[in-house]
Amino acid sequence: MPQQLTIALSKGRIFEETLPLLAAAGIVPSEAPENSRKLIIPTNHPNIRLVIVRASDVPTYVQYGAADLGIAGKDVLIEHGGEGLCQPLDLNIAQCRMMVAVQKGFDYAHASQAGKRLRVATKYPSIAAEHFAAKGVHVDIIKLYGSMELAPLVGLSDCIVDLVSTGNTLKANNLEAVEHIANISSRLIVNKAALKTKYALLNPIVETFARAVQS
Ligand code: PRT
Ligand code: MG
């Protein structure tokens, strides 16, 4: 039986921005996940299929070899830890910034002085903990799964650590960014074992993606 290749992707911006890269490698999905409830999407290539999973689940599928490769944001990869994964390429897609944000008018400089305690709401506890530890600021991290922007508005936290791209969400909720933590983009991730056992299938895709990113 010919070897099968499974690619894990999330719906939305990552899927949209990955389509041209797949096309460059001659891979065309049979349908778009936005128009379908299918979780396994075949492609024009009989041995290559896509699986559609939550963005934060992509590294897990690839780590355990349920998918051979995938595309995940650096935010998701830092929180996952990267175990069992090779990260051969920064694809420079789905770009954004990890920022600290507060309600407009909140005195962040004062509140984040050493010696005080800051309440931080975030979906990214590892990134947030590391950032504030490096500054020597004591924090209580409140883990949320979405809509972090609400937390400072209702007194759940003093600030949030979240991704910002246009800044429209912050603006619409009377928040402002006060600190830049990191620039974020999405990376190609490959299962470490598959990199060896499926080299002949995987390598042309990695090389094509690398060329597409450079051009
Ligand atoms: O949406 P869902 O809860 O299913 O999962 P997800 O948010 O993890 O997935 P998705 O598809 O929204 O994001 C996938 C990846 O895209 C993330 O892991 C990031 O690496 C990257 N990315 C790029 C972003 C953004 N830009 C972004 N703006 N991920 C999320 N956002 C959110 C942000 O959290 C905030 O709520 O968009 C809002 C801010 O956007 P602006 O344009 O208003 O600033
Ligand atoms: Mg989202």
Layout of strands and helices, then pairs:
Blueprint: E1 5-9, H1 13-24, E2 40-42, E3 48-52, H2 58-63, E4 69-73, H3 74-80, E5 85-103, H4 108-111, E6 117-122, H5 125-135, E7 138-143, H6 150-153, E8 159-164, H7 168-172, E9 175-191, H8 192-197, H9 199-214
Parallel strand pairs: 1-3, 1-4, 6-7, 6-8
Antiparallel strand pairs: 2-3, 4-9, 5-8, 5-9
Phosphoribosyl ATP binds next to helix 1, helix 3, strand 5, strand 8 and helix 7.
In short:
The protein has 215 residues and is of the alpha/beta class.
What does this structure look like?
33% of the residues lie in helices and 33% in strands. The longest helix has 16 residues. It folds into 2 domains: 121 residues, Periplasmic binding protein-like II (D-Maltodextrin-Binding Protein, domain 2), CATH 3.40.190; 87 residues, Periplasmic binding protein-like II (D-Maltodextrin-Binding Protein, domain 2, 3-Layer(aba) Sandwich), CATH 3.40.190. It is of the alpha/beta class. It has a 9-stranded mixed sheet with strand order 2-3-1-4-9-5-8-6-7, sandwiched between helices. The radius of gyration is 19 Å and the shape is elongated. The chain contains 9 helices and 9 strands. α5 links the parallel β6 and β7. Phosphoribosyl ATP binds next to α1, α3, β5, β8 and α7. It catalyses: 1-(5-phospho-beta-D-ribosyl)-ATP + diphosphate = 5-phospho-alpha-D-ribose 1-diphosphate + ATP. Belongs to the ATP phosphoribosyltransferase family. Short subfamily. Keywords: Amino-acid biosynthesis, ATP-binding, Cytoplasm, Glycosyltransferase, Histidine biosynthesis, Nucleotide-binding, Transferase. Heteromultimer composed of HisG and HisZ subunits. One of its GO terms (molecular function) is ATP phosphoribosyltransferase activity.
